Amino acid sequence: MVHEPESRPAPHEGAGPRACYRHPDRPAGVSCTRCDRPVCPDCMVEAPVGHQCPECVREGSRTVRRARTVFGGRPAENTRLVTMVLIGINLAVFLLVQAGGKPLLNDLLLVGRAWSGDGPVGVAEGPGQWYRLLTAVFLHWEITHIGFNMLSLYWLGPQLEASLGRARFLALYLLSGLGGAALSFLLAPPNSASLGASGAIFGLLGATVVMMRRMKYDLRPILILLALNLVFTFTWPNIDWRAHIGGLVTGAVVALGMMHAPRGAARPLVQWGTCAVVLLAIMGTVWAGTVQITG
């Protein structure tokens, strides 16, 4: 015998449309796909699937963690931006100095142990001349010099920038350049001058060695490159080995602090604390060089 299926009322039959849980006087258009609460068109927020209520959207935003690079920086779509900006600044300064000639060059380069009739010349004069520690890092006179340095920056920079993030990479570059300039200032022979991005480039080399060791990559290619550069440093005429070694050591120390910092909330503190300690060491080196010249 065939039985007719029982007739069941449709959901909410006779009860009218459901009201929005935030606005009881408004009919709900849809239900939240996460909590199933009814929401009106003014409250619904479009989601990848369906719609959500404002509370679920806020809760989801709190639980989503920001992506980070392997060493804690913020990832960027363009991982060459800082590298290309630094290359652009170096090229702009080069063209400016070519147009301004030797007087402008003399105003920007790093002067070691030099004296005039009135006293020391350059950084040792005091805070008004400390800018030379930085301007010398972006200063080149010969086209072969800037060409080699910028090719090295273009080759080394993007990988470190992608791994560290923009801010940490920029700090690494600038501190390496300043570290090289400070050691050059401390140890340079009398009446000598130094210029060029080589200290910063050697800092990137040192940081690349630390990074590849930290990531357990094959170190042989970068060690061979570093060895060749050190050979040129100590055999090629008119190369400031002090700036190269100072940049190399500074870059390696900064990279150790950044790439071996523990994960979690303490990591930024360790990373930027390392940068602060290195900056203090650079300032101490400049002070020692000044005392040596003026004392």
Computed over alpha carbons, the radius of gyration is: 30 Å
Provide the CATH superfamily of the largest domain: Rhomboid-like
How many strands appear in the DSSP assignment? 8
Query: Could you name the CATH class of the largest domain?
Result: Mainly Alpha
Q: Can you give the mean pLDDT? A: 87
Fraction of helical residues: 55-70%
- How many angstroms does the end-to-end distance come to? 117 Å
- CATH-level-2 architecture of the largest domain: Up-down Bundle
Kindly name the structural category: mainly alpha
Count every helix, treating DSSP H or I runs of 4 or more residues as helices.
10
Beta-strand share of residues: 5-15%
Provide the CATH topology of the largest domain: Rhomboid-like fold
Largest sheet: 2 strands, antiparallel
Can you tell me the number of structural domains? 2
Q: Categorize the overall geometry.
A: elongated
- What is the H/E string? EEEEHHHEEEHHHEHHHH
The low-confidence runs, each spanning 5 or more residues with pLDDT under 50, are: 1-15
Keywords: Hydrolase, Membrane, Protease, Transmembrane, Transmembrane helix
Biased composition (Basic and acidic residues): 1-11
Family: Belongs to the peptidase S54 family.
Protein name: Rhomboid family intramembrane serine protease
